[in-house]
């Protein structure tokens, strides 16, 4: 049986981040907050707890967690210096000092056992080569009685209105690119299974959504995806692979703009969530 790309049986090691760190990507990521992206975890955190933020990215959620727990109690890790610097820049811009931001592999975290009270990962496990191994690493570094929270979108579950063939094609290509890069764009539905495979037993699974239906939200969401599908790593990958032509990508970008301008426009992004006690 051929292993599914993005599963823990994927033998490939040539993973890359599908979206890159261009302005259109950061336009989307910088609207993420602890409230809109980690609400399921917040009731289990309190000031003074030591937290590891795995895959801190644009740093906006990290900043919120640092304000809640105390900056000196938060450590963030990213896969590259480029990504880590994004986190540092955001923290500095918000006037938050004391958060340690390191470059590290989620599959091999450079911390001793029982180093943290909590670990958090948002939109991360869909991109790593071996998600349950990354969760097992979080389990190793979180003390007994601590908590692990993870949340990931489920791309095949995206829904929108009005229907648009170009957006159907956009989603098909986005999913294809993520899988080709070793990711799991349907990660949301897989989190519970990955947690069990990591040896976590006390796991509560749930779900939540982002819904974009106001003129402001539509304009922001469409601008982010129109930019990603027309320029940057995602567009370059699609063109290089021969999956679509430049005019096709431009039509998708125009379709995003048309969707945003429609007063009936509505978009749903479903997420899976897990909260695990160690």
TrEMBL record:
Residues 1-17 have a biased composition (Basic and acidic residues). Transmembrane segments: none annotated. GO terms for molecular function: S-adenosylmethionine-dependent methyltransferase activity. Residues 52-148 form the Methyltransferase type domain. It holds the Pfam family Methyltransf_11. GO terms for biological process: methylation. Keywords: Methyltransferase, Transferase, Ubiquinone. InterPro entries: Methyltransf_11, SAM-dependent_MTases_sf. Residues 1-21 are annotated as: Disordered. CDD domains: AdoMet_MTases. This is Ubiquinone biosynthesis methyltransferase UbiE.
